[in-house]
Write a structure and sequence with these properties.
about 325 residues, six-stranded parallel sheet, Rossmann fold, about 10% strand, N-(1-d-carboxylethyl)-l-norvaline Dehydrogenase, domain 2, about 50% helix
């Protein structure tokens, strides 16, 4: 991961050259119907499936043969590399695991034959890495939008995602129908990079709400209240949250090893990005910082491949078993 200190957001005039979209030879004049998806993991596969349901022709690539087979089963057109997907698509969505994958993809697509192509980059990655990929593609006439997503894998399947879009306003507007094909809502946040900034804010809240959900449910269990009852009663009240609604049931039935929407191991990357941003912007974050040890403990207890709902197990093991009555 690139650990360079990213620069603060600048006025649009400073980056006017890079923010201007190229003249499109692929997508500007015709309705968007052919969409490519690079990365068919938990999020990418869900987006692809919803786009197919919405009537788009979807072309995809993933290094996993298993992922490609699953993609084909829902009606997708599988390809063996990124450029083959770009050859078919008017717009390409990237859902990638790390910065190396993004750099590799940007290099593969940075060819003049892709002039006018729009790439919707949905991964949660260091904004400096995204800027590098944007500049690499811009040289070939390809526009990269920074569009991270708010929502878990389960939410992605039910099309309950929010898109934090940033980049050239006209291009964001141009691909709005694509956003509508796989999300519940999308926002144009302006200058490239603001999407990731908003995503870090959202994930800070997710980190806290996930652990606070586990704390509250564990307290209820000690009171003798069934976990399922606590989830049902608390979800609609003032203390409710999306994490209580989504991960509360997983904590109640201890299904974090089966219903995986965000692996603890992958979440560590997001936690690091948030920590770096808080340090860079000199923001005090005592509540977020207190959750770091809980997620680290989840890794230590072997929950790295489990859903982050496993923090319930961490707190349960940390808590005394003595009778307080």
């Amino acid at each position: 991961m690139n650990n360079k200190q990213p620069s603060k957001s600048k006025p649009a005039t400073v980056s006017k050259k890079l923010e201007r979209s190229p003249q499109s030879t692929k997508a500007a004049s015709s309705p968007l119907k052919r969409i490519g998806v690079l990365g068919l993991g938990i999020m990418g596969s869900a987006m692809a499936a919803n786009l197919i349901k919405a009537g788009f022709e979807v072309y995809g690539f993933d290094p996993s043969k298993k992922a490609l087979k699953a993609f084909q089963k829902v009606g997708g057109h599988a390809h063996l590399d990124a450029q083959s997907v770009a050859n078919e698509a008017q717009v390409v969505i990237t859902s990638l695991p790390n910065a190396i994958a993004l750099m590799t993809t940007a290099k593969a697509l940075s060819t003049k034959k892709n002039k006018g192509l729009v790439v919707i980059e949905t991964s949660t990655l260091d904004i400096q890495d995204k800027r590098f990929a944007r500049d690499t593609l811009h040289a070939a006439g390809v526009t990269l939008l920074d569009c991270p997503l708010s929502g878990t894998g389960a939410q992605a399947k039910s099309k309950d995602l929010t898109v934090y879009a940033s980049g050239p306003a006209k291009v964001v507007e141009r691909v709005s129908s694509v956003f509508e094909g796989f999300s519940n809502a999308h926002f144009n946040l302006g200058e490239f990079g603001n999407g990731m900034n908003m995503k870090l804010m959202a994930n800070l809240l997710v980190a806290i709400h996930n652990v606070s959900t586990a704390e509250a449910l564990l307290l209820g269990e000690r009171f003798g209240i069934a976990l399922s009852t606590s989830v049902k009663v608390l979800a609609g009240g003032a203390g409710g949250s999306r994490m209580l609604q989504i991960r509360g049931p997983m904590m109640a039935d201890k299904s974090w090893a089966e219903d995986i929407t965000m692996k603890v191991e992958v979440w560590q990357k997001d936690m690091q990005l948030i920590s770096e941003a808080l340090s860079r912007e000199r923001v005090a974050a005592p509540v977020f910082n207190s959750t770091i040890a809980v997620y680290n403990a989840a890794m230590g207890l072997g929950h790295d491949q489990n859903d982050t709902a496993a923090v319930f197990d961490v707190l349960q093991k940390m808590s005394s078993k003595g009778d307080s009555k």
